[in-house]
Amino acid sequence: PGVWEYLRVNLHALIVEELQPAEFLHFKEELVDGVKNGDFTLELDFEPFNAAFPRPTLHKYIGDGVEFLNRHLSAKLFHDKESLLPLLKFLRLHSYEGKTLMLNEKIQNLNSLQHILRKAEEFLGDLKPETPYEDFEARFEEIGLERGWGDNAERVLDMIRLLLDLLEAPDPCTLESFLGRVPMVFNVVILSPHGYFAQDNVLGYPDTGGQVVYILDQVRALETEMLQRIKQQGLNFTPRILILTRLLPDAVGTTCGERLERVDGSEYCDILRV
Fold first, then answer.
1. For position 204, what pLDDT does the model report?
2. CA nearest 133: which of 124, 125, 144?
3. What is the per-residue pLDDT across 197-242, written as a single tens digit (0 to 9) for each?
4. Alpha-carbon span 84 to 107, nearest angstrom
5. Could you tell me which residue ranges the Sucrose synthase N-terminal domain spans (predicted)?
6. Distance in angstroms (rounded) separating the CA atoms of residues 107 and 130
7. Sign of CA dihedral 120, 148, 65, 61
8. Least crowded by CB within 10 Å, which of 59, 74, 89, 219?
């Protein structure tokens, strides 16, 4: 009980042979697509991506997983100078849409990073807090600093001081503050696999309830927050928010049959139906 076996019957040769699950799924895809795709079979790996992550054992960390991970990471950074190399590597490789962020190739090691940060701190201390990043962008690029630190001298200085503190003496609070201000989130996907998800004429359909209104309100607020953060980080990227849901061609009187629909009251939020 609970074990499926798949069999294939050859009517011409009167032979029954067992199929592996992968072969059966491949056959089903061929029936749906109407073509044979050869070796390009869709495979999804549902193995937990965090299998190697540390796991809390104290009850006080239930619901505070971010704090626990920050403590764990800061403890690893505190071992020795070499433990900070992954952070340096991340900041040097960090980019988006082909644009290098945070650090460029001119900074090769931790000593040069600390030296450059101290020079930048001294330079920014002589500027007015509201000085826009564009006024000193060229100078920063010359010493190895790229966009992503902030949109004015005050925010850039705060960010640089956070990293200097982290390099001197890592602690969970500083690590959380620094990583929380590094530009990383530009695209968000919200999955709503059940219900008739649309903006009009869906109330009363099965599995709709208040979830439609809730998600629509949340994505508008999220767009506003992301736009503000991207601006404060000194960047001009546009965010993209997708609500991924089902395509229902037979839902007459609604837009559930449209593949792509812009969320009313937003610029960069769309409903994608598949």
1. 66
2. 124
3. 888 877 667 665 677 888 899 999 999 999 999 999 999 999 999 9
4. 14
5. 1-29
6. 27
7. positive
8. 59
